[in-house]
User: What shape does this take?
Amino acid sequence: METQRKFIVPIGPQHPALKEPGHFQFTVDGEIVTDASVRLGYVHRGIEKGAENRNWTQNLYLFERICGICSHVHATALAIGVERLAGVQAPPRAQAIRILMAELERIHSHLLWLGVAAHEGGFDTLFMYSWRDREIVMDLLESLSGNRVNYSVNLIGGVKFDVEDKHRDAILRGLDTLEERTRHYLNVVTTDRTFLARTRGVGTMSRNQAELFGTVGPTARASGVARDVRVDAPYEAYTLFPVNLVTDEGGDLMARFVVRTKELFESYRLIREILDHLPSGELTVRVPRKIPAGETVSRVEAPRGELFYFIKSNGGEKPERIKVRTPSLCNWASVMQVAVGHKLADMPMILSGIDPCFSCNDRMVLINRGSSSQVWSWDELRRYGIEYYKKL
Amino acid sequence: MDSEELIQTAMELLVPWALKVNRPEGNRLDVFVEPHHLKEAVKALVETQWGYFSALTGLDQPPAEDGATEGHIEALYHFCRGPVVLSIRTSVPYSNPVIESICDVIPSATLYERELMEMFGVVMPGTPSTDRLLLADDWPEGVYPLRKSFTGLGEQKLEETDGNAA
Assistant: This one.
């Protein structure tokens, strides 16, 4: 009887509450995951194909809608690439506003992740606190752009709005509160014993693995890989406002918490510096409707890591091809390899540890060969994980 | 190493297989190789730890309207290191769209290969999974949406697939 206890656990694809659907299949031997696979595409909207039927300006709006969390970096990656093909550069003030918004976006994204990851581990107090604090940065983004998501900052050739003194004061006040709160969070994720029981030594990825799998962003940096597009290939105003790289040698979930939390401090510092030395001048330059033929690669550092755009123009008003490789795709590939050998109870935390742009996982069918099958929801898996660790 | 040195190192590594080398932008290097040399070229990069595999782009070059030239799919394997983007490019004809999988060199390439296969109809021997990654389960076989010739499934096909799903 014991030898027959092999389960295949499909999770997903629907989840009504979170952001995006995905489907995972874990083969388990008792508690231990022995194989993992992923199926994406449930929200595939054919944007790359759609781009070929729209002009460059329309595409800016289309690509901003790839992701609701990091919409601004998508539009920025596209705008930078198209400007390069057109042989123009956004004015210095516009470049600074672009990275200012990118850092505000990173803050909101990291705080959002902190809450989600805490929730998956059963730490709902931390979830509520971090999302409450996230509202500070959401209000700032809204006061600057008029929108909570899809800020629509960029034009091809610049930005749409200026940062005025009243914004500056509000941002500085908000950052002071956030910095104090972040110090508290750093303390929690590095000292709370129940928290550490779920994160320390869990989901460890060595530096070599992270290098080989092409891991990007905070997930890579938490394995000691010094990889950040803002540092490796500074774009826009990052040449004026250099970023200090945050890495950790731990490679485990705890390191991923530490790296993201410390990156918040770096974003606060950068934003203060940008506000202190905001270049003056115009916000836009003129860009022709038809973009000269050519190919370019545009890379930016999204909150989850390197965002890669390959843009090809045939000299017309519409692109020949735009290829987008989002950071989550790189990190999926790595997490599916790392999952093997871990306990099923750790899966919720390991999956959310890469800050995936996913959310799925409504159904889960437990198949016991030769006996009855059972249907679980993601919520039940989450509770299973929490209960499992309570018993230890 | 500055970007010039990085590019020189990559060029020296890939010279044995390079059909053509191009410098489209200051930080970019394009190396064109034969499809059957692609894996060896990738291996050379991985063995010397030149950067990381960042993305795989497919490009469709449809046949000439008068049929004088055959349609091709070009695959671009982008590797990044510091500020440098190296693209190993290879082109295969519609009639024999075969590129060997690189998954035994770079295991995480499986997701990118699944995308290239279903979107462009490239055949990749040795790839660990040919399951759909992004397209729907009931998407018709042999229809590759990122080829330029694809302009939509059409109403009849949509009805058919709806019927199949039910």
